[in-house]
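Pair request: fold both.
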Amino acid sequence: MLNFLSHYEEYFGPLRLLRAITFRTLMGAGTATLLGFLIGPWLIAQLRVLKFGQHYDDDRTGDLAARFDKKNTPTMGGLLIFFSVFLSTFLWASPNVWVVVAMFVYAALTGVGFRDDYLKVVRKNRAGISSGEKILWQTVITVIALAALLWHPTSAEKIREFWVPFYKEPAFVFAGGLGVVALLVLIFLWIVGFSNAINLTDGLDGLAIGCTITVALVYGIMAYVAGRVDTSHYLLISYVPGTGELAVICGALVGAGMAFLWYNSHPAEVFMGDTGSLAIGGLIGVMAFMVQQPLTLVIVGGVFVMEAVSVIIQVGVFKLTRRRFGEGRRFFLMAPIHHHFQKRGWPETKVVLRFWILSLMCALAGLGTLKLR
């Protein structure tokens, strides 16, 4: 669509704006927001008719908090985000290897997440797809994505470089066969890790998508900076030709996220489900490698990391104490950590708002690493 319109810029001057990534990013965000608001009511109604709802339950007890039952709230709301992002990217992004691979990962993981949700809510299989099958699909998707990036001359060299925050040169380069295997493992861990982290965060109304918006906003800026010779050289970060177009995807994700938040805010009318969390985590994870900022994602996505680490600590302490004392003990009142604060009596909306503030602080800290070299 973008290439078609650009052919006519000599006849209609304002079409020259289409050359500007900033303009197309804003248009992508606006288009995704509009599509989200248009698709949202219809999609939610269809999910309710089909009874695509899953039992989500907030087990708060005591005088400070009453039980809030989220049973039968439609899930699979990640479809709203996916269609908004995909159509906006098609309209406003100039296709290159970075854009195509990113959207392939997003679309493929959306399919895997949809199958998982479908088995849970329709087939009444609470476990969904097995962990082995999920890892298999994630591995296949990662292999295809990395193979495409290594095959294409535009991305073949850059994707092998590994950059770390606060350092102005690549920490090392993944050379040879062993290097490719190591790179594959790292990308896989980022895709799986952040998919699971977003899934764990998606336990309160608006929490996961609000944090996703801040992360997408920061990586849109990073993609824009990495795709420009002048700013990348000034900030002493890697110049990666073509990655500026990923800013359009990030802008679309911000716009779609805001539309989804409209329906996901407390009390939620729809949940994103694995259809959303699995795919968004994979998309953000692979884009972090594309713009040479993989470790920065640990800072920018600090809330997601905190949620995942809280579960690891809780499980680890429980198993260790059960082995040592014969009875498992808990480090937190409940994990993931947002439920810990609920158990302490915080209202759901207070937990969400305070975690959004933490997410914004993490985002600003991540942006600060661009200048500290």
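--- second member of the pair ---
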Amino acid sequence: MVSRNLLREFLHHSREWSRAKRGLELMEMAALDLKAFAAVDSGFFVYKKRASINPDESRKPDVYVPWGVFEKNLSDLQALIDDSILDLHKLVPRMERWVLVEDLPEELRAKWSHYGVLELGIWPLVSREKMIGAIVVAETMPSSIPLTFGMRLAILDACAALVSLGIDLILASRIAEESSQRDLLTGLLNRRGLDSRLPKLLQQASENRKHIVFGLIDLDDLKVINDTNGHPAGDQALQLIAEIINRNVRSDDLVARIGGDEFAVVMQTDKPDSEFGMLRLQKAVKEQSGYLSASVGGAVWGIDGDLLDQCYQVADERLYENKRLNRR
């Protein structure tokens, strides 16, 4: 009865995990519940962090949220995991069950015995039928909670399944959020994406003692291109100018398409001069496209305005002045 009630309590409590917005937060919540309901005195998570846009891109597996005997030295624990990954084929047959450390292959036994571990369990985290990480649990002393062997397995089975699902849901949410902040045609940020990233860039510029230039770039004669060569040609022109702008700013600057033929840039500069950087981009469009021209205007944050709308208005006025001069 005690075991059955613990499992029910664990499953009910795990509903709280749906509040997690980040994988790290999810693992922290799961670790607390494993300690409370399964009496797992030591453990950690292993996870191959994936990129939001391309979930198939992954890095090396890293250690997260160690507790118990594994808390002491994270660098040593990471080295142990790096070594164990090389012998993963020897561990896979022993997954999803508790294993006495003395029953591990000789080359692994000494490494895990170093932590004073008596029993070890590895439960894989799975996404799209691929192993993306694991919950690693260990016992260094007999459990104080009277759990049957089957119930211990059931709690960890459930935990691994719920964490796997939670990670997938968090990633799906991030992909959706990222997509909602991108312009479909050019792949640049849209206005929403620009707004969401601007505070971080402003803080970074302040810390680096840099100035911020907000600039507008307007593709000249897009209507003529569409009317003469068709809308596919106009789309190609927009994609080309987006590539050129991206190529001619720094990687941590912001580039966005905020209108049909209008682009915005937010750049860190050493001097409070909006004209130099914007004219440089105007020249790059003309020279690197071979046939496109653009009008530009810029504003210096903190001088021409302290808000995005204020800087936008100043940059827009200067853009139209630039356009007027180009038509002479």
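Observation on the second member. Strands lie at 42-47, 62-67, 98-100, 119-127, 130-139, 211-219, 254-257, 262-269, 294-300.
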